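Usage

Read records sequentially. Each one opens with the input sequence:
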Amino acid sequence: MALSPAHTPPQDGPNARTDGPADRTDAPAPASRGLLPLLFAGNTAMYALYLGVGSVLLPLHIEHLDPAAKVANLGLVSGVAAVFATFFNPFAGALSDRSGRRNPWILGGGVAAVAAMALLGSVNSVLLVCIAWCLGQAAMNFYQASLTSVVPDRVPAGRRGTASAAVGLGLPVGSTLGVLLASAFSDRLRTGYLVLGLLVALAAALFSGLARERRMPAKRPAPLREQAAAFLGVLREPDFRWAFIGRALLVLGYFAVVGYQLYILQDHISLPGGLTPERAIAILTPVSSVAMAVSTVVGGVLSDRLDRRKLFVSLSAALSGLSLLIPVLSPTWPAMIVFSAVNGLAFGCFMAVDTALVTMVLPRAEDAARDMGVLNIANAGPQIIAPFVASAVVGLGGYTPLFLLGAALAAAGALAVRPIRGVR
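and closes with the structure output:
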């Protein structure tokens, strides 16, 4: 990849950055009216697959194969697959930057996801499940890397909070849709996988067909060593580095708990008579999602109007940590409902506003997909660690220490954004 001169969009408002790693001289064209709904649809489908597979279908699949070792096997499969996600996201972003296009990569990733989900539904050993889910993660991260880059590519800085809210709404809506679909097909895993893959392919086709893009100049190939140095170089920018750390800490705490939610409901929470863990997840997910949707919109819009990002990010991370203490104090079904609502409020606001914050500290506009891919390591990287950490913590002390660890990590994430200087 060519390391051409910095060329990034200016920020609006009194806190515009006028110096730093790159002068921002080429603002994106105003976003078309249809772009935000398409971003919402694309992210909804993406999170439907991630949450439907990760929270329901994959744990059930692994439990059916080896019930006695389900916790350790889920940790192994999820962790190894997350390694693939960590590698493929910035790699796919770099390819997208190099081609000067986003839409073809979004479409290609969506089509590949169907094939990966069909394969995942057909395998019947833990090893093959791991391989198939790795391929699914690779396909989805080609899709995700390019889709994530659309906001810094095509949305002016003054509307990033609103655009990020549209993107962020995909998480609560997508997680609800994915979990409901997965729960509906809990006794037909192969069909469930395929339905979620087709949903992503449909969203990819709609986005690539309807969202106009301004083709950017293609870049010349660069030596592998130069590309690796460029990937790591963005982390030398202090604001980007602290945003990366804050995101990584919160995501680690979140997925250490949420990734084991089905098993928590099976083995730790006293459920009312007749309520199965699968049905319980289908109730908790909409509760969390409604709260997440409200806070995503409110947080994104208010952060634009007040021109404040750090305040919203730090407060929402702190609230996420507090919510993880609720099941510790009361490991009951009503407490899990309250936890889901409060954690949804916190996580929705964090993801919406933090995404807007990050787009404002990107050093180079022409490397937006690559740099957003590096940031997405803060999403995928903790998911490598989380399953291994969670299975070890549960094995040693049960689920209460797991909630406490998640709370501590979220609190650390709240503190990590304080050193950021380029954004209020």
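Summary fields computed downstream for this record:
- Residues 1-27 have pLDDT under 50 and may be disordered.
- The chain has one domain: 35-211+228-416.
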